[in-house]
Specification:
Length: 304
């Protein structure tokens, strides 16, 4: 989705002009996918801007870096503050997307990056909807989700997403809005950048970490909000064919938020429109991100 560039980017502890935030062509992360990142959202509310689950995102970023042996030169607290200051210096007061990234910098060529610099950057910019449709038609991809036996799915690593790119491009070229990937065992894993939930007979079901998912922060939020709504959520393996006969299916993710899936592999899901459980969860989520949920006010960090 196109976006409007901001004025400044935070790079290795300093603010630089957007056009001047550059790295060498032989930066290791560019060639080998040796980077980890996060995606966060900020929402306007009551003359302020609220970042959703800021500390949780930065903690996951640091855990991703740890998995890949990256010794980050900044603390969690420093990166949290850097996100806040990046939004402030750019005077962003509308809906925004924030992209922190930690990556192996330039130090030579080859897989062994020992001794290379570990760099950090944060970009923030005004941002609207990830999907331009309120309800999605998706297909199950022929590409399988990466496995923990080869590349850790729990690390939100840049290199992991080439898997998602293949699935996404194939889906679009086949007339779908997005794709669902199966894990190496053939069970449902997740979307190209979203976690997935299935609703059947009033209960919600979602794949567990054993299905090679990234344990999403929006996923966790939805699970907690569903509990508040007295909707039971069960983590278990889900087969592809179960999705076809589900009452409702939905994606969750920072960019996607909470969005209904109304068709899978040319099969209509439920009555072909957003179901009542999806709507209840979506409404609760949209209240939480703007600080209107009294049980989860700590999820929203004010910027101004």
């Amino acid at each position: 989705m196109p976006f409007q560039e901001a004025e400044y980017i935070w790079l290795d502890g300093k603010f630089v002009k957007w056009s001047e935030a550059k790295v060498p062509i032989l930066t290791h992360g560019l060639h080998y996918g040796t980077g980890v990142f996060e995606g966060l959202r900020a929402y306007p509310s009551d003359h302020n801007l609220l970042v959703f689950r800021l500390e949780d995102h930065i903690r996951r970023l640091m855990n991703s870096a740890k998995i890949y042996y990256m010794n980050v030169q900044h603390s969690t607290k420093e990166l949290v503050n850097a996100v806040i200051e990046t939004l402030k210096i750019n005077k962003i007061k509308t809906s925004a997307y924030i992209r922190p990234i930690i990556f192996v910098g330039y130090g030579g060529i080859g897989l062994n990056w020992t001794g290379f610099p570990i760099q950090s950057a944060i970009a923030a910019f005004s941002y609207g909807k990830y999907f331009d449709k309120p309800e999605l038609k998706v297909g199950v991809s022929s590409w399988r989700r990466i496995s923990d036996q080869s590349t850790p799915p729990q690390a939100k690593a840049t290199g992991n997403y080439i898997n998602s790119v293949l699935a996404k491009l194939d889906a679009l070229r086949n007339g779908y809005d997005d794709a669902i990937l199966l894990d190496q065992r053939g069970f449902v894993s997740e979307g190209t950048g979203e976690n997935i939930f299935m609703v059947k007979d009033g209960k919600m079901y979602t794949p567990s970490a054993a299905s090679s998912i990234l344990e999403g922060i929006t996923r966790d939020s939805v699970m907690q909000l569903s509990k508040d709504l007295e909707v039971e959520v069960v983590e278990r393996d889900i087969s592809r064919t179960e999705l076809y006969t589900a009452d409702e299916v939905l994606f969750t993710g920072t960019a996607a938020e909470v969005i209904a899936i109304v068709e899978i592999d040319r099969r209509t899901i439920g009555n072909g429109s957003m179901g009542k459980t999806t709507k209840r969860v979506r409404d609760a989520y949209l209240k939480a991100v703007v600080g209107e949920d009294k049980h989860h006010k700590d999820w929203a960090t004010p910027i101004y």
